[in-house]
Amino acid sequence: MSSTHTSATPYYFVPAESRHPVMAAAGLFFVILGAAQWINGHQWGMYSLALGLVWWLAVLYQWFSQSVQESEGGRYGYKIDLSYRWSMAWFIFSEVMFFGAFFTALWWARAHSVPALGSLDNALLWPEFKAAWPTVAAGATASPANIVEPFQTVGPFWLPTINTALLLSSGVTLTIAHHALRENHRAKTIRFMWITVLLGFVFLCVQGYEYHHLYSELNLKLTSGVYGSTFYLLTGFHGFHVFIGMLMLFFITLRLRKGHFTAERHFGFEGAAWYWHFVDVVWLGLYMLVYWT
User: Fold this and answer.
1) Predicted structure pTM score
2) Which of 17, 147, 228, 250 is 20 to 30 A off residue 277, Cα-Cα?
């Protein structure tokens, strides 16, 4: 939401018919078609995937640009602001459920699946199996036939702790930027927004370096039993969400530089901030449950 509202602001804005939804769906069709064919060995699927992504991103750019123009044109009133807030709240709730499923998978593997494999019922099938977590001890990979390569687990020091400090710091700088915007200090807002975006970028660089270290030195891979699969699913999807949140904040910063948003009306800023703080909270859960335990 933006700020340039006039006395003619409608009670509720109804947009004209738009081609954007069907065009975005068409782009996603080629993405899914290409991905499905590519992973099944058809090389043309790679080109379909690339075409679909470019198509989809171009449609999103046009769609978002139109929304920004409508907002800056004073067409969005209280009801639209309220609908955006509810939409963002439900979107974040869906993300909570998304990560909740992966956290539940981690808990189920540790508390139920691994102990069950080491129970008396399975003793005849895997007599040498050790029901221990992390599944790195000899025989504890649910693979007595040694089809899972030996690997080492990862602790909280030092890269995960550095990334925790980076994300927590970014939450602080984002909050400072928000308060500065509410006080109409635009230059200060933009300065701290750039710092927040930079901290998010550094987080991704550190995580990339961590992944390289894990693969090359600890031999911890996505195929390293249930420990490796849950580790990379949780941290990898979180890293993707950090990337999306960083893009949100980047484009909000560009809009701030163009003079968009005011101290009174700036939900575009607030929505991105909500998402970023959600990403921070998820990382704290990952840091405690994946790296420390």
Assistant:
1) 0.86
2) 228
